[in-house]
Design a protein that fits this description.
heterodimer; A: 115 residues; mainly beta; 6-stranded mixed β-sheet; 0% helix; 55% strand; B: 108 residues; 7-stranded mixed β-sheet; 4-stranded antiparallel β-sheet; globular
Amino acid sequence: GENVEQHPSTLSVQEGDSAVIKCTYSDSASNYFPWYKQELGKGPQLIIDIRSNVGEKKDQRIAVTLNKTAKHFSLHITETQPEDSAVYFCAAPNAGGTSYGKLTFGQGTILTVHP
Amino acid sequence: DGGITQSPKYLFRKEGQNVTLSCEQNLNHDAMYWYRQDPGQGLRLIYYSQIVNDFQKGDIAEGYSVSREKKESFPLTVTSAQKNPTAFYLCASGTTQHFGDGTRLSIL
């Protein structure tokens, strides 16, 4: 099955700075990579995802980049705000590379944005 | 509004007791999933179901059971065989996985 490693486990930034979280995966057949944001006491919420046919995807202050050769993908948050403080999880398919379905999650990154 | 609802929000289990966590969705999704979340370990898959009346074990199914009699419902039972049940349990539905807000289970 898929193995997903996520770094760093904690990240502290000043408001307005950028934040980058990186994940590596093991199955070269994987072709779908979502990112989730989890606020305290809530379930994770999908914030952005990328498929293997593109190298980058942006949505306002959030972007995800994918390097299939190196088997890693990263979440980039620009102009961070205190409300970006949360736990962020990356994930990759746990089913032999299929785009949707079972996912293996990274261990999570606790992002703290200081005003 | 469409969504996925988990209940109760908090649950306490006594020694030797089975408890059932509810998960209901009105998103018309075929696939549903149960995850366990422990601090520093991310989410681990317990069971999943891709269609009514069918389900498969995930990575940590021992001590848990599920049923899928209706498309909208995927309840999880934590049995007395699960010796370390204290965790945050998350239910999700759909191929891109919409999550509920979880049930926190503790031992009395």
